[in-house]
Amino acid sequence: MFTPCHRVSCLPRTQYSTRVHYTKLSEAEQIAHVEKMVPVLLGDYGIEAASIENVNHAFNSSFRVVSTDSAEFAVRINLGAGKSRDEVAAEVQWLEALDRDGSILAPRPVRTVEGECCSSIHFTPLDVVANAVVFEWIPGIELGDDVSNEQLFELGRNMARLHEIGQTLEFADGAYLPSINRTLMNSQDNLRPNQPNEIDDEFYDLVLRGLDVVDSTYFRLSANTSLLPIHADLHPFNVIQTPTAQAIIDFDDAGMGLPVQDLVVSTYYLREVIDKEAHLKAGYASLRELPAVTTDDFEALLMGRLLVLVNDVLMLTSADEREFLPTFLGRAKKRLRAFFDTGVFTLLH
């Protein structure tokens, strides 16, 4: 039976008591502060760590933990304040349903010793209550940039399986996934009504034009399509190739959306070589009918994926990501300009 997350652990206050100070730390210093929370959080699961290694530090901070009895776990700490405990519970319930179904390999959640879906802790440097989830570690290699046509076909099939299972999924005890069938999904709008300091006038005009196009596209498509649970971040870096199967990881952005959104997200990261996406779509179509959208609408939604990334990176606190911000925004401006010139979205550098 589902039990909501309720207890909030605490750490002693540090000299970095505000968000401003935290964002000025180096990447290594930021990770060191976040890592202090991991042993405290693991105590809620009855896990004692022999080693802790950071494997990702961006929107969230994730760690690989080897316990004193040699078991391996993944710990994801949500540093932003945007995801509620009930949303975390829905993510965990979906993953537990996938584990019971057995047709898709995905992270197996670990509940706390009290049966809770997650653990919560106050993170002083950002002054937020961070929710953390623990999963059994999945060994393997990210598909990444070198994904093969065969792997893309299998990814498409797995995506279709996710959608089939999601159609019958029911959440319990107040758990829910947010509706994300919109341009900025479930993110705070950092682009309107005021122009961000990091974005120049020409770029901002392109952003506003893009938002108008994508907002209207989602409104139109949503009028005739039922929402279902979607992964919403299903790209090759969130797929692990194990010796026996692909494993889909990182359901953190999951929400109630349009099936085409998962295809859009996966395709976005393939747009340096446009022909590769045909294998992804063929895999999906081998199990489930492809979403009925026009080419123009699909291209607009690809452009929309760029807009949500622009929106979200403006609020990132990760030191490395903030250092890369001017480069990313420069590329985003080129990509928007090219889209409006050609009607086709490409990953220009």
Characterise this structure:
It contains ten helices and twelve strands. It has 349 residues and is of the alpha+beta class. It folds into two domains: 8-137, Phosphorylase Kinase, domain 1 (2-Layer Sandwich), CATH 3.30.200; 144-342, Aminoglycoside phosphotransferase (APH), C-terminal lobe (Aminoglycoside 3'-phosphotransferase, Chain: A, domain 2), CATH 3.90.1200.10. Strand 6 (119-123) and strand 7 (128-136) form a beta hairpin. Helix 6 (201-222) packs across helix 9 (295-313) and helix 7 (259-268) crosses helix 9 (295-313). The longest helix is centred in the last third of the chain and has 24 residues, at 319-342. The protein is globular. The termini are far apart.
Which short descriptors sum up this protein?
globular; 7-stranded mixed beta sheet; 349 residues; Phosphorylase Kinase, domain 1; 12 strands; 3-stranded antiparallel beta sheet; Aminoglycoside 3'-phosphotransferase, Chain: A, domain 2; 2 domains; alpha+beta
Number of domains: 2
- What shape does the CA trace take? globular
CATH architecture label name of the largest domain: Alpha-Beta Complex
Q: Tell me the span between the first and last alpha carbons.
A: 49 Å
Q: What's the CATH H-level homologous superfamily of the largest domain?
A: Aminoglycoside phosphotransferase (APH), C-terminal lobe
The unreliable regions are 1-7, 10-18
The chain-level structural class is: alpha+beta
Largest sheet geometry: 7 strands, mixed
